Amino acid sequence: MRRPGAVARDERQSQEYARGLNELEGYLLSQAEAAAALSGAEAFAALMPWLTAAQRDEVVRLYAADRLQVSRAALRRVADRALELQCQYSTRSRALQAKLLALFLSALAGFGMVLLMLVH
User: Which of 32, 33, 23 shows the shortest CA–CA distance to 71?
Assistant: First the structure.
C-alpha cells in the first residue's frame, strides 16, 4: 500500500509532466507557425522580382510579422471562445446535476411512501 504522501507527490509530478508537455507542445506549435509565416513571406516576396534585396527583406519581415499577428489574434479568439463554452457547459452541467438530484430524491421519497403504504 502506498503512503498518502507518495500518492500526492506522484500526482504533483504527473501534473508537472503534463504542464511541461503542454509548454513544449505550445513552443513547437509557435515555432512551426513562425516557420510557416517566414516561408509564406518568402513565397510572397518571390512574386515581386523587381524588389531590391533590402526591399525584399523588408517585405518578408513585414509579411511574416503580420501573419504572426493574425495567427495570435485568431488563437486568442479561439481560446476566449473555448473559455466561454467551458463556462456555459459548466453552468448547464451543474443545473442538470441539480435537476437529476431533485428527480432522484423525489423518486426515492415516492418509493418510500409506496413502501410505507404497502407495509401498513
Answer: 33
Distance of alpha carbon 71 from alpha carbon 33, whole angstroms? 8
- Per-residue pLDDT of 32-46, as tens digits, reads 999 999 999 999 999
Overall pTM surpassing 0.85 (yes/no): no
Beta-carbon neighbour count of residue 106 at 10 Å? 10
Residues 63 and 46: beta-carbon distance below 8 Å: no
Query: How many CA atoms does the CB half-sphere of 16 hold within 13 Å?
Result: 6
* Terminal CA-CA length for the chain: 50
Alpha carbon of residue 95 to chain centroid? 23
- Dist CA 81 CA 73 (whole Å): 12
Rounded distance between C-alpha atoms, residue 66 and residue 90, angstroms: 36
